[in-house]
């Protein structure tokens, strides 16, 4: 029965080793399992070899004792040496069997450990498969969320682009307003120069009118002097006429001259009267002109003040427009930066979506691999259980040699 059992056991061990090598090409326990299998094979081989050697020695002893006719001393020496060898053989065989039995016990222990680990790995693989299922579900949810966020980001990006366009238009209009304000300020400066020139000319006219007024006063004095002279001349002509009348015929010619002088004096008086009237009218006109020039001067001063205030207002407007333009430029830059950031976010969301899709695909692959690993773990556990049964059978067989 031993001859039948040992070959069958050896074949079972080799077949199990082949299955383990196929199932565990990269498994962490493959090396240890293969070592255990080869220890068992070596034990079986040594058992068969020692048994055959023991049988051969017994046959040789019998053959030497019955067949060859040796001298008594030589026969005794030969048989004695053979008996010593046969006496030592059971002891050596027992030691070998004890070592093999101990190795078999260790192999059984490691087999139990591997069987337990295989069951644990199978459970872990099942848990990993369940976790991967949750990951796949979460990945699908993440894909939907990423798609929704991508749509929202696209809407925000479009709004930001519209804001950027409107901000650019406002910036252009603000620049035009700034240019127009600068032009208006320049025109106001020109108006101030013109008003200052008018003020200077008005002052010159006032000065000229003052001189004319002074000259008119002097003319009035001269006219008064001429009027006095004409009155005195007229009076002298009257006295001359009286004296000529007293002289009679002799004074007739002198009376004619006196009459002519009187007429000239009267004409001079009338002329001076007209001149005086003209001077009075001229003085009145000069007074009106001076008054008007004073009003014009006041108006010019008020105009200068108003223009200065307008210039200051333009300065304030220009300053405010400059500040607004700067703020618009900052806003435009910020909007451009936000637009760029939104584009980057959109690209990142697209990349995340691609990664989510790839992750989902890989999760499915990992899920299938986990299911396959679970199946392989079950097969390994079954093979390890068979290995434990074989080792137990070998232990029973080894105990027969004790």
TrEMBL record:
The chain crosses the membrane at residues 33-54. Residues 117-353 form the Methyl-accepting transducer domain. It holds the Pfam family MCPsignal. SUPFAM superfamilies: Methyl-accepting chemotaxis protein (MCP) signaling domain. It comes from the Bacteria. CDD domains: MCP_signal. One of its GO terms (cellular component) is membrane. Coiled coil: none annotated. One of its GO terms (biological process) is signal transduction. InterPro entries: MCPsignal_dom. This is Methyl-accepting transducer domain-containing protein. It comes from Candidatus Desulfosporosinus infrequens.
């Amino acid at each position: 029965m031993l001859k039948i059992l040992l070959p069958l056991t050896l074949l079972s061990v080799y077949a199990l080793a082949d299955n383990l090598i196929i199932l565990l090409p990269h498994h962490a326990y493959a090396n240890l399992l293969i070592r255990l299998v080869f220890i068992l094979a070596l034990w079986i081989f040594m058992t068969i070899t020692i048994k055959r050697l023991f049988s051969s020695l017994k046959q040789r002893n019998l053959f030497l004792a019955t067949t060859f006719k040796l001298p008594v001393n030589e026969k005794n020496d030969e048989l004695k040496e053979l008996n010593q060898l046969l006496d030592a053989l059971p002891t050596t065989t027992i030691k070998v069997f004890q070592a093999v039995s101990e190795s078999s016990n260790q192999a059984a222990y490691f087999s139990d450990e591997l069987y337990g680990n295989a069951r644990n790995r199978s459970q872990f693989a099942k848990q990993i498969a369940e976790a991967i299922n949750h990951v796949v579900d979460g990945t699908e949810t993440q894909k939907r969320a990423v798609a929704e966020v991508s749509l929202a980001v696209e809407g925000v990006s479009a709004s930001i682009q519209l804001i950027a366009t409107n901000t650019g238009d406002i910036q252009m209009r603000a620049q035009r307003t700034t240019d127009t304000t600068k032009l208006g300020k320049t025109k106001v400066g020109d108006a101030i120069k013109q008003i200052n020139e008018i003020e200077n000319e008005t002052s010159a006219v006032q000065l000229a009118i003052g001189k004319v007024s002074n000259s008119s006063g002097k003319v009035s004095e001269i006219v008064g002097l001429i009027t006095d002279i004409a009155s005195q001349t007229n009076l002298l002509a009257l006295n001359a006429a009286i004296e000529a009348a007293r002289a009679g015929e002799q004074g007739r010619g002198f009376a004619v001259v006196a009459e002519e002088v009187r007429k000239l004096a009267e004409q001079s008086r009338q002329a001076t009267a007209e001149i005086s009237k003209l001077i009075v009218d001229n003085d009145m006109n000069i007074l009106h002109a001076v008054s008007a020039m004073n009003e014009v001067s006041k108006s010019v001063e008020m105009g200068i003040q108003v223009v200065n205030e307008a210039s200051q207002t333009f300065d304030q407007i220009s300053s405010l427009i400059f500040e607004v333009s700067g703020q618009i430029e900052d806003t435009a830059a910020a909007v451009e930066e936000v637009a760029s950031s939104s584009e980057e976010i959109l690209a990142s969301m697209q990349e995340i979506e691609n990664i989510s899709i790839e992750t989902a695909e890989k999760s499915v692959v990992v899920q299938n691999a986990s299911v396959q690993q679970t199946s392989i773990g079950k097969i390994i556990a079954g093979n390890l259980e068979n290995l434990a049964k074989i080792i137990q059978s070998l232990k029973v067989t080894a105990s027969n040699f004790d």
